[in-house]
From TrEMBL:
It comes from the Bacteria. It holds the Pfam family Band_7_C. PANTHER family: STOMATIN-LIKE PROTEIN 2, MITOCHONDRIAL. Coiled coil: none annotated. The chain crosses the membrane at residues 6-29. The keyword ATP-binding does not apply. It is a single-pass membrane protein. The keyword Transmembrane helix applies. Residues 24-182 form the Band domain. This is SPFH/Band 7/PHB domain protein. GO terms for cellular component: plasma membrane; side of membrane. The lineage of its organism: Bacteria, Pseudomonadati, Thermodesulfobacteriota, Desulfovibrionia, Desulfovibrionales. It is found in: Membrane.
Length: 308
């Protein structure tokens, strides 16, 4: 009975040891992780995600690394710009473990190493720029910091993906000066805009006045042309009427009895002329020989005949 009891205890112990051995041998690695296995204190292998087996008491999992992208907030620090202005700068660093072996044995603490290197690289980049440039060239600062860190982090099995500046804070007196500068710049732009408006207004008024004067001169020109054309047509009409009248008179004189009518009209006009002269003045003008009226009429008729 004692032997059977001992045998049962021994069997149970073996089963327990077997179960313990199997449990210590099995390692299930989650996705996006890399585990470092050391065998007798020396690097042996990297366990990939999934089911893995190791030898208990000989192998041990020394390091566990996440292969995901890791964001790390860097502490705020004071940087001196090229024009000797202090800036409080903090940022966010994104990195990823690409080689678990180098991340384990390349440095004692790759996270601290990357953080310190990011701060020193940032101070170096900021020191090469003036204050105004630091606000305008954030992308360039980020690029240079990433480039500087990535070169060193390559030996640590880490890939630096990007660096983002969260805040740039100058001293209070610099902020006040910048605010005053911005206010002055805005007032300057407002004055320039107002002057440009007045200038454009004056140009528009001048162009409108010029157009009005041109239109007025064109109207006066057209009016003068119309008046000249009207006067010319009037003169032509009067001349045509006079010519027609002369032709009619000539035709009447050439007709039978026309000369007798002309003699009578000349005599009447002659007498009428002397009558008007006597009415308009205080001095009475009479022919030298009132009895020789017939000779005067004859003289007038001779003038008419000569003109004919």
């Amino acid at each position: 009975m004692a032997e059977e009891f001992l045998f049962e205890i021994f069997g149970t112990l073996l089963i327990a040891l077997a179960i313990l051995f199997v449990s210590l041998s099995i390692r299930v690695v989650p996705q996006q992780q890399g585990w470092i296995v050391e065998r007798l204190g020396k690097f042996h292998c990297v366990l990939e995600p999934g089911l893995n087996f190791i030898i208990p008491l000989i192998d041990r999992v020394a390091y566990k690394h996440s292969l995901k992208e890791i964001p790390m907030d860097t502490e705020a620090q004071v940087c001196i710009t090229k024009d000797n202005t202090q800036l409080s700068v903090d940022g966010l660093l994104y990195f990823q473990v690409t080689d678990p072996k180098l991340a384990s044995y390349g440095t004692s603490n790759f996270v601290q190493a990357i953080s310190q290197l990011a701060q020193t690289s940032l101070r170096s980049v900021i020191g090469q720029m003036e204050l105004d440039k630091t606000f305008e060239e954030r992308e360039e600062i980020n690029r240079q910091v990433v480039h500087a860190i990535d070169e060193a982090a390559h030996n640590w099995g880490v890939k630096v993906l990007r660096y983002e500046i969260k805040d740039l804070t100058p001293p209070a007196e610099i902020l006040r000066a910048m605010q005053q500068q911005i206010t002055a710049e805005r007032e300057k732009r407002a004055l320039i805009a107002a002057s440009e408006g007045k200038k454009q207004e004056a140009i528009n008024l001048a162009e409108g006045q010029r157009a009005a004067l041109i239109a007025q001169s064109e109207g006066e020109k057209q009016s003068a042309i119309n008046r000249a054309e009207g006067e010319a047509r009037s003169i032509e009409a009067v001349a045509a009427a006079q010519a027609e009248a002369i032709r009619l008179v000539a035709a009447a004189v050439a007709a039978e009895g026309g000369m007798s009518a002309v003699n009578l009209q000349v005599a009447e006009k002659y007498v009428e002329a002397f009558s008007n002269v006597a009415k308009q003045g205080n001095t009475l003008i009479v022919p030298a020989d009132m009895g020789d009226m017939a000779s005067l009429v004859s003289s007038a008729l001779s003038i008419v005949k000569a003109g004919k």
